[in-house]
Amino acid sequence: MSSYFTDLAQQYIDGEWRSGTGSWDIIDFDPYNDEKLASITIATVDEVDQAYRAAARAQKDWAATNPYTRRAVFEKALRLVEEREEEIAGAIVAELGGTRLKAAFELHLAKEFLRESVHLALAPEGRIIPSPVDGKENRVYRVPVGVVGVISPFNFPFLLSLKSVAPALALGNGVVLKPHQNTPVVGGSLIAKIFEDAGLPAGLLNVVITDIAEIGDAFIEHPVPKVISFTGSDQVGRHVATVCASLFKRAVLELGGNSALVVLDDADVDYAVDAAVFSRYVHQGQVCMAANRVLVDQAVADEFTEKFVTKVRTLKAGDPRDPETVIGPVINARQADALTGVVEQALSEGATVLVRGGRSNNLVEPSVVTGLSADSALLRQEVFGPVAFLVPFDGEEEAVRLVNDTPYGLSGAVHTGDVERGVRFAKRIDTGMFHVNDGTVHDEPIVPFGGEKHSGVGRLNGDTMLDAFTTTKWISVQHGRSGFPF
Q1: CA-CA distance, 47 to 218, in Å (whole number)?
Q2: Which of 58, 82, 103, 221 could be stapled to 203 by a disulfide with Cβ–Cβ 3.0 to 4.6 Å?
Q3: Strands 147-151 and 227-231: what pairing?
Q4: Model confidence pLDDT, tens digit, residues 94-145
Q5: Looking at the whole model, is its pTM more than 0.90?
Q6: Which residues make Cβ contacts (< 8 Å) with residue 55, sequence separation at least 6?
Q7: pLDDT at position 3, please?
Q8: What share of the chain is helix, strand, coil (3-state, %, to 5)?
Q9: CA 418, CA 217: separation in Å to the nearest integer?
Q10: Secondary structure of residue 354 in the 3-state scheme
């Protein structure tokens, strides 16, 4: 596996694999055992410029290519992912600390999104719109924006890079991808290799592995990209949005969350426990849609809490290569330190820790906290790791108020014996997505995905990809002669 990472530890610019020319290296580590996977010399501002210029040059011919021809590239890319599934899964385990279950989950979704990209190549359709002017024909075309800059995160890097890269390419754009520094291969060069082998013309997809300490805002300020697709924290997303707005660029922002899973008084408690444990602890809780808060009606709180704690205690933490492992390491020591700090802060505020997981390097075991005061800042922030907050409530009105009492609005779920009651509840929640009698972690290729409030701007998936990565152009034709007033 180490040679696999070494082979892909390069920049990919204008169809060439090459070393960056920066003055320092990004060291790619396995977060579980600290094994060095690769060393990658970072890209400079000049190389970011070269990548964008290459994408702009290649995009013109690509946009003019028959969409049926473009479609074939994505069909081939899908076959390659299927053929290489085991080695990609191994890379996800090694670079992210993802468990085998998580790797399978990410790969399943990645393949679904590639299948959708096959169809997206044929999706743009023009329209003829009536005119009040005699003899005038109004044609509205869907055209590519040109070049898209993609910035992907560390938690689901293969999926979340592909989720923007593949649709943007399928719709006729060029792309420059900047993966997260902790996942440069799975989120970056691995995707470049797949598309190169699938026959994507050189220059259309470029991968720059770098750091803002080296390039500053050059990636988002560059004059070539018309759209920046960013997935990450709301703090960084706010900055990306500000820079894009000042330069009249479009920003598609998929940001953090503070989702709640709500258990009403008529819920199936055993099922709700299973949904809540998965929603909080999948991939160590490093999921934007994860259930940070588990809100439980007082009528079932004791039963739910006992069963939830019992199930959490069974979750095996350890080596992600072990198929029995449910909780692997978090991505780095900074994240592990932050999670330890969350539990200590809860204790200092007088909360009760029902399960306190230990820590070994980046391996943070699950914790369960209850008894936080209603005004605790912990209940309003995103906690990116295996710490669950149990919050009792008294009646549905209080539940709605508590769920909405956060600056975020990404996902959520409600459990109830009455589906329509659940739907009515969901409609009152200020989120982009909400699920009845299920978990909080869902993504499907043709359903609009995105958040409200600090959880983002814009949507991805399905038809919303057209809004994200194309623009409209009005061309009118006057078949007669216009009359002019002078």
Answers
A1: 10
A2: 58
A3: parallel
A4: 999 999 999 999 999 999 999 999 999 999 999 999 999 999 999 999 999 9
A5: yes
A6: 147, 174, 175, 176, 203, 204, 205, 206, 224
A7: 73
A8: 40, 20, 35
A9: 50
A10: strand
408 phi/psi in degrees, rounded to 5: -95, 165
Closest CA to 11 of 50, 37, 60: 50
Q: How far is CA 70 from the centre of its chain?
A: 25
Total residues belonging to the chain = 486
Residues 6+ apart with CB under 8 A from 71: 118, 121, 122, 170
Strand-pair category, 456-457 with 250-254: antiparallel
pLDDT of residue 483: 87
CB atoms within 10 A of CB 418: 14
Residue 156 has a pLDDT of 97
Give the per-residue pLDDT at 1: 58
Alpha carbon distance 106, 102 (integer Å): 6
Written as one letter, the residue type at 346 is A
Hey, which residues are catalytic here? 254, 288
First to last CA, the chain: 75
- What span, in angstroms and rounded, lies between the C-alpha atoms of 80 and 74? 10
Burial (CB count <10 Å: 0-12, 13-18, 19+), residue 299: middle
- For 265-275, write each residue's pLDDT tens digit: 999 999 999 99
Give, for 6, the enclosing helix (H) or strand (E): helix 2-7
- The residues pairing with 368 across neighbouring beta strands, listed in sequence order, are 355, 388
Residues of the chain with pLDDT under 70: 1-2
What pLDDT does residue 2 have?
61
Tokens of 56: 């702009």
